[in-house]
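Notebook entry, structure prediction.
Reason for the run: the old model in the group folder had no record of what sequence produced it. Starting over properly, with the input documented here first.
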Amino acid sequence: MTFKPTSYKLMNCGDGRIFDDAGWTLADPQGKNPALVRAVYEKKNFEVREDLDGFYRYADWLPVKRTLSNSCPPVTYKSRKLAEYLKLENLYITFSGYFPEIGASMQTCSFKETEAYSVCARLAADEKRVLVVASAGNTARAFAKVCSDNGIRLLLSIPEDNIQALWFDKPLNDCVKIIAAPKGADYYDAIALSDKVCESPAFLAEGGAKNIARRDGMGTTILSAVEKTGRIPDAYFQAIGSGTGTIAVWENNLRLIGDGRFGTHKMRLYPSQNDPFTIMYDSWKAGSRELLPLTPEDARIQASEIKAKVLSNRKPPYSLAGGVYDAVKDSRGDMYKISNDVLDRWKAGFLELEGIDIYSAAAVAVASLEEAVKDGSVKKDEVIMLNITGGGEKLAKSHKQVVYAVPDLVLDPALPSEEIINRVEKLF
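New structure, fully documented this time:
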């Protein structure tokens, strides 16, 4: 069957201007103030595409030109044991990872696969430029898998300290190359390195939170939940590094309201961070739309202290129109911060109660739900969505051979752009 590209336009979240997508538009070219752009889909009703496999069952609300091989959707199920422990009657867990018992089979064990399958399918099949993605770990693994499986040229930029996150069940296709910022560098250093590479017209910046495909891919988590429950949840819990996933479910919540069949309410958003890396939590609690000051030195120290390393983005899309601040405020939500000790308790607790290992970031989300129950933010009979953004790695690794990727180049981001570009272009 020939796939027909999804029909949509773009909207400036700051001033509401509607305009056409030039193919890889990341911002409104006429925008006067910082703002995300949002996809406005021609199809207004939420319907599952039973004619499409895996993740692409949600293609009507994905800005994609094609479908790719080996995708899997998030899986939502009603919790029994965790719900009983927290005394909640309608707790639904949306699980992105490897948990065959419930039908979840994401090979990289992370909901970052939802981003990668959407972003890479937004690319035209004849795209000549090399896609560039900066990541602290899980995103890199997901994009590497998707691009390797589908023959899409990709350059990953990661901190060398995070190279252990790049594990796979088979060696990567030669179309995927990896550069790394040296030991002691953080995620922001990897971004700085990728920015210099993208000064060359031979490379295409993926765009991060600004890419509608990344957000709408992550937004399939709430579509999975609504498909299971038949309604928009009352409250939503997720740990955040950039907050892109929280923005994504808010945007799909608004689309679902436009449909009208699943409720007309906005679910309260409760994103959480790993203490002490709490730049968004601190800014939110201070009532500040602008991020509070955080020096690179302090950010690196804080990032080194948290166990959920993927939650250490020091320049998240918080302040701009359509960003995290707007999402949480519009939903009448709140934020939580969770210590390493509590995180560890819930990694063990979730395994005991729900029967699967989860990542540290996901444990932060579980802990924040416990806090919300304790402080009365959620009621026991409300429909609650808990976004478990990654899990099953131990199980997955026990089921297969594991190979680890190594960087093709280690580059200091302080090097001149010309030297970095020259060395990276030789990889392709």
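Summary: The first helix runs from residue 81 to 86.
The old model has been moved to the deprecated folder.
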